[in-house]
Amino acid sequence: MVSETFVKKNYELAKERYAAIGVDTEHVLDALQKIKVSIHCWQGDDVLGFMNPGQELTGGISVSGNYPGRATTPSQLRADLDEALRLIPGKHKVNLHSIYVDTDEKVDLDSIEPRHYASWVQWAKEKGLGLDFNPTLFSHPMFESGFSLSSTDKNIRDFWIEHCKRCRKISAYFGEELGQQSVDNIWIPDGFKDNPIDKISPRERLMEALDEILKEKIDTNYTIEAVEGKLFGTGVESYTVGSHEFYMLYALTRDILWTIDAGHFHPTEDISDKFSSYLLFGKGLMLHVSRPVRWDSDHVVIMDDALIRIARSLVRDNLLDRTNIGLDFFDATINRVAAWVIGTRNTLKALLMAMLAPIDALKDAENQHNFTKRLALTEELKSYPFGAVWDYYCLKNNVPVGEDWIKEVDHFEKSILITR
Ligand SMILES: C[C@H](O)[C@H](O)[C@@H](O)C(=O)CO
Ligand SMILES: [Mn+2]
Fold first, then answer.
1. Is the CB of 261 under 6 A from ligand 1?
2. Which of 223, 240, 260, 266 could be 171's S-S partner, Cβ–Cβ 3.0 to 4.6 Å?
3. In 300-374, where do the E strands start and end?
4. Any bridge partners for residue 260, and if so which?
5. CB atoms within 10 A of CB 71
6. 47: Cβ below 6 Å to ligand 1?
7. What is the pLDDT averaged over residues 22-51?
8. What domains appear along the chain, each with residue ranges and CATH number?
């Protein structure tokens, strides 16, 4: 176990080192403390939910692995989230999908109401958390055709429109009860495996369905919609109705949020390059921070270049206030609680690393076309003692320093998860 004195001593040295290049570590730690990451509940149970957990996972997403201890009830999932949250510094949000109902009633997606999620709100209040929400337009008999809001069948479209309208109300209930805006994120898997003849009609139907869903004005202090596009999905390789261009323009013209999922673009695209363009015009962003390995594989987020670039763009361009940082990965080959801890701690670490930089000096160098200084300084920064500041942040937040959290998860696995 790392001693408190050691962490504090190291931090004081690091503080001095950063101060020498004009970086105030105390100021940086205050800024990091304000950041809320929206932690996705679905890592805890392999995206099955509690409405109809026997239902096959559809929509082109899949979870590999069969690690023991998957949460099969809302209270188990909350217990697992509690365990993860106590190992992650800061106060955050939890992101629910509509299938995570907590009720004895037999409800379907077109009959859900806020009261079916009351236990989540109660729990969030107790823990000081925010809640985000997602309609679930997959893993359901009404999605058997592979189409939801863009279906040619009006009955199918109407079912999903009703579902999404209800989800807005539930999200608003979260926002009102918890005193902080809840993001209601819509993603649909609709598309064609092979080349379609007509590419415009499905998008027109989707646009009209979304307009119908958004018709009722709801106070944005409580909820706001976000729309998530995708390049392609498994089974819909040739055409995705909800493409990036479709949603980017939809979000822009309807004054809602655009969701950028790190796994939904071509692997060579740098998603961090998109934020500054979109936010010059759009209201705001929702991010699904994920790790695509060759495709949208939803691996647990690690401190790789892609994550570091995401954090740098948000910090250097001052975009944090208009960006909701959410996570989206699901791995059942490892302990699911550890997956949350690793992915969330890494996201926060990357943000901290980005903040620990003399950003104004770097911008000045750039504006003076002193690209030598810009390159030299950014490279030197890589060996600055950022880890000492991170350790201190963990200590300050009363969460384990360094790898000390691993034995906590081990203990939780042996005493709780394995008994399920
Ligand atoms: C479960 C989520 O809604 C889903 O992962 C979605 O956000 C997505 O990214 C689909 O590829
Ligand atoms: Mn996503």
1. yes
2. 223
3. 323-327
4. 287
5. 24
6. yes
7. 98
8. 1-23+357-420 (no CATH), 34-355 (3.20.20.150)
CB distance 328 to ligand 1 below 6 Å: yes
Question: Could you tell me the CA-to-CA distances from 258 to 208, 252, 288, 369, 409 in Å, in that order?
Answer: 18, 8, 11, 33, 35
Q: Which two tokens stand for residue 399?
A: 């969460």
187, 230, 324: which to mutate for ligand 1, most atoms within 8 A of CB?
187
414 as an active site residue: the answer is no
Ligand 1 pocket residue status of 184, Cβ below 6 Å: no
> Has residue 1 got a pLDDT over 90?
no
Average pLDDT over residues 189-205: 98
CB atoms within 10 A of CB 173: 21
From CA 200, how far away is CA 230, in angstroms rounded?
16
Dist. CA 58 → ligand 2 center (Å): 14
Res. 224 pLDDT band, cuts 50 70 90: very high
Q: pLDDT tens digits, residue range 46-89?
A: 999 999 988 999 999 999 999 999 999 999 999 999 999 999 99
Name the residue with the closest Cα to ligand 1, atom 3. Answer: 187
Cα 242 from Cα 261, distance rounded (Å):
13
Active site annotation includes 331: no
Cα 243 to Cα 404: distance, rounded to the nearest angstrom: 42
Q: Tell me if residue 288 is catalytic.
A: yes
